[in-house]
């Protein structure tokens, strides 16, 4: 790649640091304050068609799949349309039932991931309507889809996706708001979400400014053999993505579990040598999440919390700015990108070229 590094040591660092402006770009020109909604030009889905959608299935791989999981949550919360995400690679091999009232959404940074493209082609062959949430303009998946929205993250060179993840989730928030305002989301809630979206770039800057503190924490955890990541509902895909980031660039083994599943097995792993990173937003699940921290502490597990306020049971808390509950996952992943970065750096890893990986997987 030949993009300017702009004074950063790695593309990953450059791309993480671009996230406030990238989010600003995906929001620009799309917010309609008069109707408390957003306009997404290329969707090719009019209001009547949007009302007829009974289910949404989101398909992607890796980080894009995780962004799609958060997207599905946003669509269910804001538009009250049943939605879920699935790895595109699995979907296309299980002879899925393709339902005419389901809207399919393919998610991809590159727009060239073969498993996603092949899933889109299979869906189209069966007469489904497929939208794309894609970063690279004019890419294969963007061309193949019936419509969609660009993520506008700008070029992402590092194998490890960071700014595109954040922007993809914001793009899903816009789509969810758009669908919600066509369906049952009130003007007041539309306005509330718009205000939350507008706060994101400034809050991202606040998180990026915490880098020195996060770097120190990363150095403390860098020796770990393995790490556990937990979260619930909105926090679970954040945990999955954070564990993927850590694996990809530090090669530390990491697992992600819903905090609620700990007692069904993984609690057996907890001991001082296995630190846990816990996503603990100030939402309706705060007390449940705190109970999980207590369970871990009772087994002498070390805990790093990402939360909206200091967590007593945690050994360390990264306190992030609060947004609307629905939008919190967008922000909570960002400190953990920095955490993965500095952990890998402390271990002397080649950040921009992790072993065994390619930026886009264009073969099966
Ligand atoms: C992200 O850090 C990964 N390297 C990888 O999981 C990636 O997200 C996946 O291969 C999908 O790529 P895409 O978004 O370009 O389709």
From TrEMBL:
EC top class, as a word: transferase
Domain SIS: 45-185, 217-354
tRNA processing in keyword set: no
Single GO molecular function: carbohydrate derivative binding
Any one GO CC term of the record: cytosol
Assigned keywords, A-Z: Aminotransferase, Cytoplasm, Glutamine amidotransferase, Repeat, Transferase
Main location class: cytoplasm
Cell compartment(s), UniProt: Cytoplasm
Active site: 359
One BP term from GO: carbohydrate metabolic process
Domain of life: Bacteria
UniProt-listed Enzyme Commission number(s): 2.6.1.16
Reaction(s) this enzyme catalyzes, per UniProt: D-fructose 6-phosphate + L-glutamine = D-glucosamine 6-phosphate + L-glutamate
Subunit structure: Homodimer.
Function, as annotated: Catalyzes the first step in hexosamine metabolism, converting fructose-6P into glucosamine-6P using glutamine as a nitrogen source.
Name of the molecule in the record: Glutamine--fructose-6-phosphate aminotransferase [isomerizing]
Organism expressing this protein natively: Streptomyces hundungensis
């Amino acid at each position: 790649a030949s993009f300017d590094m702009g004074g950063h040591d790695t593309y990953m660092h450059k791309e993480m640091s671009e996230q406030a402006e990238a989010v600003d770009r995906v929001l620009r020109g799309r917010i309609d304050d008069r109707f408390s909604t957003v306009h997404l030009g290329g969707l090719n889905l009019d209001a009547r068609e949007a009302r007829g959608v009974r289910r949404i299935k989101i398909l992607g791989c890796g980080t894009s799949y995780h962004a799609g999981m958060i997207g599905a949550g946003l669509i269910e919360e804001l538009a009250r349309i049943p939605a879920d995400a699935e790895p595109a690679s699995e979907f296309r091999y299980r002879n899925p039932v393709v339902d005419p009232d389901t809207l399919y959404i393919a998610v991809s940074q590159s727009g060239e991931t073969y498993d996603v493209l092949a899933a889109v082609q299979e869906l189209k062959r069966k007469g489904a309507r497929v939208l794309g949430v894609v970063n690279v303009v004019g890419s294969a998946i963007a061309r193949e889809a019936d419509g969609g929205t660009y993520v506008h993250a700008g070029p992402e060179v590092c194998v490890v996706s960071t700014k595109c993840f954040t922007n993809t989730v914001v793009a899903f928030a816009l789509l969810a708001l758009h669908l919600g305002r066509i369906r049952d989301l009130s003007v007041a809630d539309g306005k509330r979400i718009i205000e939350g979206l507008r706060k994101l770039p400034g809050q991202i800057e606040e998180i990026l400014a915490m880098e020195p503190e996060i770097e120190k924490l990363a150095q403390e955890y860098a020796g770990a053999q393995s790490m556990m990541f937990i979260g619930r509902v909105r926090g679970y895909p954040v945990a999955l993505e954070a564990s993927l980031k850590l694996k990809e660039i530090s090669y530390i083994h990491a697992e992600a579990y819903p905090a609620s599943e700990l007692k069904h097995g993984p609690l057996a792993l907890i001991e001082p040598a296995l630190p846990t990173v816990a996503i603990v937003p100030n939402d309706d699940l705060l007390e449940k999440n705190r109970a999980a921290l207590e369970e871990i502490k009772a087994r002498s597990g070390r805990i790093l919390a990402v939360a909206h306020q200091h967590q007593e049971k945690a050994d360390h808390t990264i306190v992030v700015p609060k947004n609307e509950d629905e939008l919190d996952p967008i922000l909570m992943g960002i400190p953990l990108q920095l955490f993965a970065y500095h952990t890998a750096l402390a271990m002397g890893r080649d950040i921009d070229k992790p072993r065994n990986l390619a930026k886009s997987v264009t073969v099966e």
